[in-house]
């Protein structure tokens, strides 16, 4: 089985480093070392900053690839039109098991990310900066970085900056989920389409982009567009950060100029000489077969042209010894489990799609394959967020990339290869996802179907067709404890209560010895004295 990636894996660079400058000197660039390596940074006016982003063709590096200059101008126009101060949000919620590039930046070069965010905040006249993270290491690093700069969430400060910690979940990194959590709500998509550039944190126009995007902006502002564009391709200049895992000898994050052959990057990480396939863009990405992988180069346009995707920058090759459909089934099941549980296409459609792929592998024949295609089509463009769309794209790509294996499973007895589990998944429940040992219970004798509980804790309670909660009790993970308590307080009928979960308590409680050691009875009873 492929071991889970550490928060900060090995970091390599092809050519001259831009984002990773100084990584060969220290493990983490604190503010003094950051200034020694990168030098000071002068503020820029809004239009000048937008012009710089246009010159270097800067697009969001979180997966969607939206032009940064267009987003910056949209936020500025909305703020001027409404006469309000905008907000800047750094999305460091990197929750895919196969992605670590943003986590590496936040841990090792936090001030480079802050430089880009503060540049944008100064240009827009923003007075609020929010940094969304989901890991202990990134939370600690960014809190330290803010303290090094004397920034905090103090009332009356020229810029109020804070770190927003959310649980490690695939949907947490969705922009609307991050905005919702920054406003004190659950870290889940709200279920309605809204542009953050019009209405984001606190209802204000919000510039939200991921950590690498802000770091790229800071590098370009220091060295200028001309020098920045000397690296990489003419139409996609600069470098990109990639996370390499899967069937590789050395999982790593690597900074490469655009235009570098994908095969070279794979060899750098010790991938198989003839990979059976390469998953590009992460678990919402697309598969390349071995021929396309040998011809591809690292760039958004080039990968799109050959059927791949740059996406979140994750590259995962698999070798000939594993079943690619079985590997994809493991990922599909994990993606289905990452559903926010708020809409039918996600809550019902994704598990159905995973079961459909399992039916294909179990010899369900052409009928099972057609059923899989039908349910995959059904979830697209119907979800409360992009999670169903990304999962559907992954499944469609799996079917298209491994036609020989698909034929072996559909028409024969399977491909005959085991599933080695080379694609990394979450090994254990993260701290925030761990059960709290409590459960939220509904008293049916009091419940009147107001539905307020489903609005406050939709991850725990949903309403059934009759308008009443669909379950009588739900285990409360740690990240939902505060909202579960709020639901209890707000229930108009006083029909909710939080109680100890006997099942969780029995798992956590150590077994009592058959007899107490002599002389230790009072201490065991809690006196604290021998």
UniProtKB/TrEMBL annotation:
Residues 509-519 have a biased composition (Low complexity). Keywords: 4Fe-4S, Flavoprotein, FMN, Iron, Iron-sulfur, Metal-binding. Residues 175-201, 502-530 are annotated as: Disordered. Its cofactor is FMN; [4Fe-4S] cluster. Signal peptide: none annotated. Residues 325-369 form the NADH-ubiquinone oxidoreductase 51kDa subunit iron-sulphur binding domain. InterPro entries: ComplexI_51kDa_subunit, Nuo51_FMN-bd, Nuo51_FMN-bd_sf, Nuop51_4Fe4S-bd, Nuop51_4Fe4S-bd_sf. SUPFAM superfamilies: 4Fe-4S ferredoxins, Nqo1 FMN-binding domain-like, Nqo1 middle domain-like, Nqo1C-terminal domain-like. Belongs to the complex I 51 kDa subunit family. PANTHER family: NADH DEHYDROGENASE [UBIQUINONE] FLAVOPROTEIN 1, MITOCHONDRIAL, NADH-UBIQUINONE OXIDOREDUCTASE FLAVOPROTEIN 1 NDUFV1. This is Oxidoreductase. It comes from Streptomyces alfalfae.
């Amino acid at each position: 089985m492929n071991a889970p990636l550490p928060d900060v894996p090995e970091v390599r660079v092809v050519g001259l480093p831009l984002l990773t400058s100084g990584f060969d000197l220290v493990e983490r660039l604190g503010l003094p070392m950051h200034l020694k390596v990168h030098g000071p940074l002068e503020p820029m006016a809004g239009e000048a900053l937008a012009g710089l982003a246009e010159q270097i063709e800067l697009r969001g590096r979180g997966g969607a690839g939206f032009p940064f200059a267009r987003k910056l101008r949209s936020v500025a126009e909305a703020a001027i039109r409404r006469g309000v101060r905008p907000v800047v949000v750094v999305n460091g919620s990197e929750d895919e098991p196969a992605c670590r590039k943003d986590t590496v930046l936040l841990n090792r070069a936090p001030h480079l990310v802050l430089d880009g965010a503060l540049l944008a905040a100064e240009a827009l006249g923003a007075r609020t900066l929010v940094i969304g993270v989901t890991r202990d290491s990134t939370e600690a690093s960014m809190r330290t970085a803010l303290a090094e700069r004397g920034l905090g969430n103090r009332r009356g400060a020229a810029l109020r900056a804070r770190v927003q910690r959310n649980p490690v979940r695939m949907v947490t990194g969705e922009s609307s989920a991050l905005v919702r959590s920054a406003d004190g709500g659950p870290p889940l998509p709200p279920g309605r389409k809204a542009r953050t550039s019009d209405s984001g944190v606190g209802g204000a126009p919000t510039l939200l982009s991921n950590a690498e995007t802000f770091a790229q902006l800071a590098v370009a502002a220091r060295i200028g567009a001309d020098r920045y564009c000397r690296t990489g391709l003419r139409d996609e200049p600069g470098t990109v950060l990639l996370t390499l895992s899967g069937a590789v000898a050395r999982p790593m994050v690597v900074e490469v100029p655009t235009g570098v052959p994908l095969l070279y990057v794979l060899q750098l990480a010790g991938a198989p000489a003839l990979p059976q396939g390469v998953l590009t863009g992460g678990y919402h990405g697309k598969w390349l077969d071995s021929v396309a992988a040998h011809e591809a180069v690292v760039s958004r346009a080039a990968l799109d042209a050959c059927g791949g995707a740059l996406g979140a920058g994750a590259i995962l090759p698999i070798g000939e010894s594993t079943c690619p459909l079985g590997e994809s089934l493991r990922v599909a099941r994990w993606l289905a489990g990452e559903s926010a549980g708020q809409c039918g296409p996600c809550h019902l459609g994704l598990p159905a799609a995973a079961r459909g792929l399992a039916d294909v592998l179990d010899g369900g024949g052409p009928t099972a394959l057609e059923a899989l295609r039908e349910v995959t089509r059904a979830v697209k463009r119907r979800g409360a967020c992009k999670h169903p769309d990304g999962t559907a794209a992954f499944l469609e790509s799996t079917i298209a990339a491994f036609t020989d294996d698909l034929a072996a499973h559909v028409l024969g007895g399977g491909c005959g290869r085991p599933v080695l589990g080379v694609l990394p998944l979450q090994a254990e429940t993260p701290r925030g996802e761990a059960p709290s040992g409590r459960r939220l219970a509904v008293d049916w004798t009091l419940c009147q179907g107001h539905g307020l509980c489903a609005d406050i804790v939709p991850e725990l309670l949903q309403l059934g067709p009759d308008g009443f909660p669909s379950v009588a009790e739900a285990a409360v993970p740690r990240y939902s404890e505060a909202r579960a308590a709020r639901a209890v307080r707000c229930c108009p009928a006083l029909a909710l209560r939080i109680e100890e979960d006997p099942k969780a308590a029995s798992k956590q409680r150590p077994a009592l010895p058959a007899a107490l050691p002599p002389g230790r009875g009072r201490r065991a009873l809690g006196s604290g004295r021998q």
